[in-house]
Every structure is written in C-alpha cells, then in structure tokens.
Amino acid sequence: MDLSKKKNNELLAELKDLTGQERLLVTRVLLYLQEVEKRKLFLEEGYSSLFAFCTEFLLYTPAEAQVRIEAMRLGKEIPEVIEKINEGKVSLSNAAEAQGHFRREEKKRVVPKAEKEEVLESLYDCTTREAEKKLNERYDPEAKVKLSFYASPELLEKLEKCKGLLAHQNYEGDLAKLIEILADKVIKEHDAPVRGAPQAQENKTRYIPKSTQAFVWKRANHQCEYEKNGKRCSSRHALEIDHIVEYAKGGSNKPENLRLLCSAHNKFRNFQQSG
Ligand SMILES: [Zn+2]
To answer: What residues have their beta carbon closer than 5 A to ion ligand 1?
Structure first.
C-alpha cells in the first residue's frame, strides 16, 4: 500500500474512517466475548478463566485482555456503553477504567446503575488522563501514583544535600515530600510576578524582556498555543516562546507576535519552514 501520494486531507479522512471501523470491530469483539462468557465456552475449551482464554487462545496481551474483559462486563450491565464505544464517545480503556473503579467500590457498597450511567456520561470525550482524574476524584481521592526511576550516585548525593537543607520543612526526610518542596520552589520562582507591564520593545535585540516573557507565559496559561481548527495542543512540556513572524524576517518582540510552543511544535514549525 503506497500512501505517499495521498493528499493530507485524504489521508486524515481515511484514517478517521479506519478508526471508526476499528471501533466497530472492537465492539463486536466485546459482544462475542459476552456470549463466550455466557456459554462458559472458555471452560469447555480448557481455559480456567476468560482472561486465560483471551491471552492464550486469542493471543491478547494481558493489558489488552484486561480492558476488553472490563469493558465487556460493564456492557453487560449497561448495554449502552458498547454503543458509546462504537460511536467513539467513550474509549475502550476509559470504559474499562470505570468498570475497575465500580468493581472496587462495590466491595464497600452497592453502586446503583443510575450512578454508573451518570459517571459514564461524565467520561464522554475525555482523554485517558481526564477520565482517570475524574474517576479518582470520585472513588479514590487519596489515590497516589507510584513513581520509580534509577538515580545516579550524583543525584542521590544532591537529594541528600537537599534533604539536609530543607530539613526544617521536612524533618523526616520523606522523599515524596522533598520532591514536592523542590517542585513548589521551581513553580513559585517561575510564576513570580515580574514588575511592570510588558514593554513594547523595538527590534534592536532578539532578547525578549523578562516582563514580556512572563506575560506571554501567563497569557498562554503555561500551555502550548499551537492550534488548528479550534484544537489546541495540550502539552506543557519544554515550552518555549516563539516569534509568530520570525525575528529574522522582522518579527517584533511585542506580545502580539509571541506565542508559547511545546518543543514538538517548535520543531514542527522549523520542519514546515524548511519544507
Ligand atoms: Zn504543542
């Protein structure tokens, strides 16, 4: 299949169409799994659980099997969820995530169907992260995420030093608390208001005054400002101030000519300009 000759809009329209077909297939898989479970076919075929059937017979990865089984079980109680997955209103993984929360909550109390329907509705058009946040806020407000990483001896030494320096705020030397203090410090420094309004600087230098920089960051709400057809990039990663009209082409350092871009969109801009 040679796609290299396709126009951008064709490529996107066809890809969108394919993902629609993909969702239709996924919802069919869920309905078939429901029937397999109802008939206990996995047992008859020699698998001890539907999960084992999914991983060993259907060759799903454990994570793939898990989301399908969770979503399928939710679909048993609330059949509309299957329709919503097909329509793309709720993603498979968000449906699965919701079911996981319902299942854990039901160990403590009965979760009425109406509540589940309401929660599901709140997840329409949510990204995975937004859905996770909503579900955690509702069912697991104390939820903590485990972070793990490899630290070099130099980093360990620096952390120990920080622990000592910040011991008055964190007497026990708790690592999570320490990182939180350090994060607060960086954010506070960054958000510190700069005195004076943004200066209308003439194009004598490429350097953007601190007050203008702070203004642009704040105006962008610390989020990439790349936008197309009303869809704004959600990245907050490695943001940089970009000249809308390039500085080299006479673009000014005034806020109207500045915007905040993530590193990916910054590179993309260069890619577009060079291509
Ligand atoms: Zn971006």
So the answer is: 224, 226, 233, 235, 262, 265
CA–centroid distance, residue 264 to ligand 1 (Å):
6
* Residue 39, φ and ψ in degrees, nearest 5: -85, -5
Identify the DSSP state of 243: E
In order along its 275 residues, the chain shows pLDDT tens digits of 899 999 999 999 999 999 999 999 999 999 999 999 999 999 999 999 999 999 999 999 999 999 999 999 999 999 999 999 999 999 999 999 999 999 999 999 999 999 999 999 999 999 999 999 999 999 988 877 778 899 999 999 999 999 888 888 888 889 999 999 999 999 888 877 666 555 554 556 778 898 999 999 999 999 999 998 888 998 888 899 999 998 889 999 999 999 999 999 999 988 887 76
The token pair that represents 3 in the structure block: 């796609």
72 close to 34: Cβ distance less than 8 angstroms? yes
Q: How far is the CA of 237 from the centre of ligand 1 (A)?
A: 8
- Between the CA of 224 and the centroid of ligand 1 the distance, in Å, is 5
Contact yes or no for 124/89 (Cβ under 8 A): yes
| Residue whose C-alpha is closest to residue 135's, from 112, 109, 116 | 116
The length of the chain is 275
What is the model's pTM? Answer: 0.69
